[in-house]
Specification:
Helices cover 36% and strands 16% of the residues. By secondary structure, the chain is α/β, with parallel strands linked by helices. The model has no long low-confidence stretch (mean pLDDT 92).
Length: 264
C-alpha cells in the first residue's frame, strides 16, 4: 500500500473529471498543424481559445482552429483575452456560447492595461457575477491575492487561476507563498495561469499543491514547441507526484545518506 501525505483527488471542473492537469493555449504557434502537434504532445484535454483573436467559426472561409483541435476530442475553453472591461468580457463569452452551441465552461480575464496585462480585479469581479447569474461555468484569471480569490469563489466561479508572473513573461513563480495561501483555503480547483517559462516552473506549481497549470507562450515560443509540450506534461505529472508524496523536511545541518551506526 502506498502512503501519501495528500489525497490524490481527480481534477474536476464544473462536474467533469479530467485526467490531464496541463491546460494549454492555442495562440502563437507557427500554424494550426503545429498547434495540433503540440496539444497532442502535451496530453492536454482542455485548450483555451481567445475568441477575439482565433477563428472558431466566426470568420467564414478562414482556417478554423476547431479543425485542428476538434471539440469531439478536447474541451474548448473560450477566453476573453484582450478585454479591458466587464461589459466587453461578458459580450465576448456570450458570443462564444452561440458559436459553440450553448457551451457553458469559459475562462474570464479582464485586463488592467496593455503593458502589464495584470487583471483588473474590480472589473473581473463584476463580470464574474454577471456571467454566473447568466448560467456560465466560470474559470477566472486573477491576481495572486488570497482575498480576491476567495471573493471569486464565493461568487460561484468553478476555478480560480492566479498568475505566477506577467502573462507571456516566462519569469516563473514569483510569489509561491501567496499561491500556497490560495491553495490552502480554496474549495474549487486552483490552476496557475500566466508566467510559466519552463518545465521546472510547472513542477513547482504542482509541488505547491495547485490542481493544474495553464500555459501557452512557454510551449508555443520554445525553439521546439512539440518537445517542450512533452516536457511540460512530464513536469506537471512529476510535480503532482512529489506533492502527493510529501517532500522531506528541510534541515539546517547535513544528514548522511547512510547510517553511521554499525560501521565496520
Amino acid at each position: 500500500m502506498t502512503n501519501t501525505l495528500h489525497e490524490d483527488r481527480p481534477l474536476t471542473i464544473a462536474g467533469k473529471t479530467y485526467h490531464s492537469r496541463l491546460l494549454v493555449g492555442s495562440g502563437k504557434y507557427r500554424d494550426l498543424e503545429q498547434t495540433r502537434e503540440a496539444t497532442e504532445a502535451a496530453g492536454a484535454e482542455i485548450i483555451t481559445v481567445a475568441i477575439r483573436r482565433v477563428n472558431i467559426g466566426q470568420h467564414a472561409g478562414e482556417p478554423n482552429l476547431l479543425d485542428a483541435v476538434p471539440p469531439s476530442r478536447y474541451t474548448i475553453l473560450p477566453n476573453t483575452a484582450g478585454c479591458y472591461t466587464a461589459k466587453d468580457a461578458v459580450y465576448t463569452l456570450q458570443l462564444a456560447r452561440e458559436l459553440l452551441n450553448g457551451h457553458k465552461l469559459v475562462k474570464l480575464e479582464v485586463l488592467g492595461d496593455e503593458k502589464t496585462l495584470f487583471p483588473n480585479m474590480p472589473e473581473t469581479l463584476r463580470a464574474a457575477e454577471e456571467l454566473v447569474r447568466d448560467g456560465f461555468d466560470v474559470m477566472v484569471y486573477c491576481s495572486d491575492d488570497p482575498i480576491q480569490a476567495r471573493m471569486l469563489e464565493d461568487i460561484g466561479c468553478v476555478a480560480v487561476m492566479p498568475l505566477a508572473s506577467l502573462i507571456g513573461s516566462g519569469m516563473g513563480i514569483l510569489n509561491p507563498w501567496n499561491l500556497s495561501l490560495i491553495v490552502e483555503q480554496a474549495r474549487v480547483p486552483v490552476l496557475v495561469d500566466a508566467g510559466v517559462g519552463t518545465a521546472s516552473d510547472a513542477a513547482i506549481a504542482m509541488e505547491l499543491g495547485c490542481d493544474g497549470v495553464l500555459m501557452n507562450s512557454a510551449i508555443a515560443l520554445a525553439q521546439d514547441p512539440v518537445r517542450m509540450a512533452r516536457a511540460m506534461r512530464l513536469a506537471v505529472e512529476g510535480g503532482r507526484e512529489a506533492y502527493l508524496a510529501g517532500r522531506m523536511a528541510r534541515r539546517f545541518a547535513a544528514s548522511p545518506s547512510s547510517p553511521m551506526a554499525g560501521r565496520v
